[in-house]
Amino acid sequence: MKVRGSLVAPIAGAFAVLALLLVIVLVSLVRLDDQSDKDQQSSAAARRALLLTSDMARYAVDVQIAFAGRALTGDDGLDEQVLISTVRLDGALDELAGLPADAAPRAPLAQLRTTVDAYVGDQIARLEDPPQEGWEISLEDIERLQALRAQIVAYTVAASRRADERSADAESTQRAIVAVAIAGLVALLALLVAVAAYLVRRIIAPVRKVAAGARALSAGDTDTRVPERGEGEVAGLARAFNDMSTVLQARTAQLKTGERQFQGILQHAAALIDIQDLDGRYVLVNSAFERVWGVDNGAAVGREAIDVLPPAAAIQDADAARAALVGRQLDDRELLVEENGERRVYLLARFPLLDEERRPFATAGLATDVTERERAVAEAREASRQKSAFLANMSHEIRTPLNGVIGMLELLSDTPLDAEQEDYVQTARSSGQTLLRLVDDILDLSRIEASNLHLEVEDFDLRTVIDAAFDLVSAGAYERGLELLVSVDPDVPCDVRGDGYRLGQVLRNLIGNAVKFTSAGEVRLRVTPSERTAGGDLVRFEVMDTGIGIEPGDEQRLFAPFVQRGLPTTHRPGGTGLGLAICRHLVEVMGGTIGVESRSGPGSRFWFTVLFARAEQGSAAPVSTDVAGRRVLAVAPCEEERRLLAAGLTELGVDATVVEDFDVGVTTLFEAVEGGEPFDAALVDWRTPGADWARLVIELQRLGVEQPTRLLALTGSHDDARAARRAGVAGVVPKPVRRTRLGEALGAPTATARAPQAEPVRARRPRELPPTSGRTVLVVEDNPVNRRMLVLLVERHGHVVAAAASGEEALARLGDGGIDLVFMDCQMPGLDGYETARRWRRREGDGGRVPIVAVTAHAMVGERDKCLQAGMDGFLTKPLPAEKLGSVLAHWLEQRQPAAVGAGQLGSAGAVDLSVLADDFSAEVARELAARFLEVAADDVESMRVAHAAHDAPGIREAAHRLRSGCLAVGARALNEAASAVEHLAAQAPERTDSIDGAMEALLGAWESTREAFGRARLTAF
Length: 1022
Description:
The chain has 28 helices and 22 strands. The chain has 1022 residues and is an alpha/beta fold.
């Protein structure tokens, strides 16, 4: 139905007419009121004129009477009365002249004034000049008075008539006002009645129908509709109401559908769903809730959790509800349920339901069955455990034969070998080290996945780590014709604090990859400062090569495990694909970032940054300082190598001349000799094109100058070094050139070049062994190859070695005495190394403690702690590097008296073995452990004093045992032995504490020595 025009126009028109009518009535009334005021004023003035004319008549008579009395009596006292009456007559006349013209017409008034003035003037003149014979009242006087009075009376009559007219006008105006007011009121009422009738018919009646429809709609009758009759907005209101009813009907249908869906979901949901009010009573529960908790349909509603759930579950639910209502987030609670004879695990989460003012009005609970997830997690943990066990076993199984292989190769390298045999041994050793690095990569990846890879923070020399990283790849790189270049910015700090081993691991990976994927050209490392902050120095490392490059889009994939550069299988150099993934994690752990810039073909640039703390004390190797001012000639064909040589020589204070061509270098060399200023040394790249070394050496010998030039060859491989020595050079400087090696080579004693020599068969003697110092080392190893290898390696250091193939045999050999150190294999059949160490510690009693160093192929996290907990003192991982073995022997045996010496002979100078902490921990951690030990040990010593004073032997024994448990972990050997003696005596004679007096004095002395030793160590050893 089309709605007709708006109601605004007619309603507005009606009210406009009402307003206009009202204005007309008001204006008319105002004007009539003004006229009424004027008429009343005119009437009042006319009445006043009437009064004044009456007064004037009386005053004229008074003048005549006073004048007649003066004439009759001759009393001149009546003159004043005449004058007063004349003044009053003039005053009344003046007041009459001041009235409006319609009340006192001016022409009659002027005539009256003329008559009065003549009469008054005549009378006053007669008073001023009275006759001698006296005054007489003449007929003329009477006539003049009569004429004056007649004129005043005539004026009075006219004034009376005017007053009556003005009064009549005023009354007429008043009646007109009343009539207009009544007529306007009637018209307004009539118009209002008409408007009201229109509003009732057009607005109120339709609105009432809408209101009735709204009441029906609110009662739930969504079919309600109202007629869309009427006009304008009223019809629009009806239409809007009908539209609203239609929408509400549709929404109601949707809500009913949604409610049915919600009920369906609620009843068929696997999760347990409930809603509780603020008092903890259930308002709603679903079918799963009722089924799991064994509640009949609807029986839970209105009851509390304690009435429905088992006590433990009800308590957890109540805690969760209280936390939800106060806005405190709790972890999800596990509910254990026995369902159909099976134990199920549900995870309960409870949260508040809020009203529009964000106030809670209820809590909702959602319990999800996580039984399968828990099983999956348990299976994943078991799989992870099995994986770790597999990796540990694989590490052990691989490292065990590697230990024999690398160890025997180490021994073989000290036997007489010719050049070919030495090359075979070096190749085998390199292959073994490569295999060991692969095993370490796999273990590192396992540690990364388990978040168990930690940094060992200590002071180190950054240049030493860089040089060591290149040492591992330099031989292979130069054999392939590659150039290795290292550029370290002078502003990069050398003495830094961090994990030097892990930094070297990253460098070895990146440099090794660059060499592996570069067939020609160069591999360059550039080290520059990136940022210096209060927390340390951020250093940037860039490894650049001229190799195959990386395909676009593959850059970030390279840092994922098991990904290699996109090469065909036949050209792929090999590897596990773990190196870059491990590098990324190590760099991030060290506070930096890593990335790559490359295009397929022209090479790649790998870069990373590391944040180093500042070293607590200098660790950089000293550089030769006695070469400053020397003149050195350098010949190198590579432009970058020339630049680096010039920078390195300049840094050493050397006067350097650097050239590219060999012939130019020879000419420059001989010109300097002829000029009387020969060069002190000549550095020549062995692979400089056109180099005739034999001729150069012979010519230098022929010169015979007093201070001959030392000829040094820059070599990149062992073959080049051997060839250079055969050619007769005075020395070789391995590439890439290090500043330390360069300084050492230039600072060596001056010697002429030697004549070329033929290479003899190499007959290496075994290295000179230190004299045996009466120390006996027990090697416990079930593998015969590893046992034999370890025996030989220890014997090389000049010690007597005893061997045992099992834990039982080791215990028997230890029981015989005379053992100064034990190397204990951990994985042995039967009695393994852990149990062997524990049994020996129990049997050791109060005697001197024999150090036991674990030797294991297990390299997993936690292995060291496991060994220390078993009573061992040190930890070595197979395969055993010869240099590491030597440091361990020196650590445990140099400060230890032979086994035949009693423990009591250990002086206070050996109270603490500082290397126990220094070898295994950083300086900061070592200080912290030492301080913590002293704090705890002080309490134990004080407890022993108190117990000894109270003759409390059990208390003494308990405190002594606590004290022993921490001594060996920090190297407090003297205090450990003293505490062992006290513990033994307190256990042997618990009823006689006087037998402990001497041991207590010794313990207190050892305690003071230990404190002093650690106090000194704070300033020196750590």
